[in-house]
Amino acid sequence: MIAQASRLNHVEEYYFSTKLKEVKALQDSGKPIINLGVGSPDLPPPPQVMLALQQALLNPDAHQYQPYRGTADFRRAIGEFYQNFYEVTLNTENEILPLMGSKEGITHISMAFLNDGDEVLIPNPGYPTYEAVSRLVGAKSVMYDLSEDTGWLPDFEELEKKDLRRVKLMWVNYPNMPTGAAAKKDLFERLITFGKKHSILIVNDNPYSFILNEEPQSILKYSDNMEGVMELNSLSKSFNMSGWRIGMLCGSEQLINSVLKVKTNMDSGMFLPLQAGAAMALRLPQEWFSDQNKIYLRRKEEVLKLASILGCSFSEDQTGMFLWCRVPTGTTSETFVDHLLQQYHIFAAPGFIFGSQGEGYIRFSLCATEENISKACKRLKA
Ligand SMILES: Cc1ncc(COP(=O)(O)O)c(C=O)c1O
């Protein structure tokens, strides 16, 4: 019997990794499952992106190891994207690091900056990977509560009351998942001031800024020389490319170089056609996003109906590709979701998986066709 490393003792398998097996078993037994659980876009990537990938496949260099920092053209495309959509000027030589999705970036950043016993501020509710990875690297998670009362924004007064002496890093994620809270200039300014005051590295995880969101924002726009601030971004949601595994990290040369030290020891560059396709995507005009959003808006209207039929309450001005709702009183998020799954074959994400502050809530994804969402409504009414 080979014992697993003790760092795994406090880390569970990812919720969706186990729950989706149950969903699949129901599906295999003939149940007509409507999946509103995961945030994996069902729409195709832009056609010209797939063509660019195909063409790059014929490049004789495509099958060799690629540069650790990504190709110069992909980095230039990221630079143009940040300039055009966020008004942020980046040095494409040294302030950009392409990644295999932002999820891997969370691990690289944690390995680059956290020592055993360092503390990390993590949003509750929030993306579960922040906490899991902090545990894996031996850091201590210090949860900061987000709540409906504060519009799911950090409560700076509460943050100031914490003992912050050992805190080295703070994860933030605006536009927020799972709550749909928007990113705002004054929020980013306050976060930057807070980070500076306490010497805490602020990392904004920003994969949702183009989905049902009027004003895409980057935290980098509000920082001086990107000191103490980094941003993760991703093509997974904005361009329907979650399976491609492609994203990016942006920040000062010094911070990027630390992450590069980790990354160059973990992989050997990204497949060239992926980078060529992704560069094409990042250069698409604004219309790409407006067209996607027309579809998401129609889906959202259906999901609002579904949530109302279920007796859930919600705020309508949420951004992103989910609807975050409060479940009716007298039930837990897990019971509610299991009942929905077993009785009506509709799958949604229970709020508790995002942290204790997510208990009492449920997250519906907009990654299902309008037709299927409306089918779910009919099923419930029947
Ligand atoms: C807040 C947040 N960050 C990061 C990710 C991971 O994105 P990627 O596909 O770029 O790894 C997700 C995916 O669901 C997410 O919700």
UniProtKB/TrEMBL annotation:
Entry keyword annotation includes Transferase: yes
**EC top class, as a word:** transferase
* Keyword Secreted part of the UniProt annotation: no
* Source organism, top-level taxon: Bacteria
List the InterPro entries hit by this protein, alphabetically: Aminotransferase_I/II_large, LL-DAP_aminotransferase, NHTrfase_class1_PyrdxlP-BS, PyrdxlP-dep_Trfase, PyrdxlP-dep_Trfase_major, PyrdxlP-dep_Trfase_small
For this UniProt record, the keywords arranged alphabetically read as follows: Aminotransferase, Transferase
Cofactor(s) recorded for this entry are: pyridoxal 5'-phosphate
Listed CDD domains: AAT_like
Task: Show where the Aminotransferase class I/classII large domain sits.
Answer: 32-380
List the EC numbers from the record: 2.6.1.-
Question: Cross-referenced PROSITE patterns, in alphabetical order?
Answer: AA_TRANSFER_CLASS_1
GO molecular function terms listed in the Swiss-Prot or TrEMBL record: transaminase activity
Give the matching Gene3D superfamilies. Aspartate Aminotransferase, domain 1, Type I PLP-dependent aspartate aminotransferase-like (Major domain)
| Family stated for the protein in its record | Belongs to the class-I pyridoxal-phosphate-dependent aminotransferase family.
Please report the name of this protein according to its UniProt entry. Answer: Aminotransferase
**From what organism does this protein derive?**
Salinimicrobium flavum
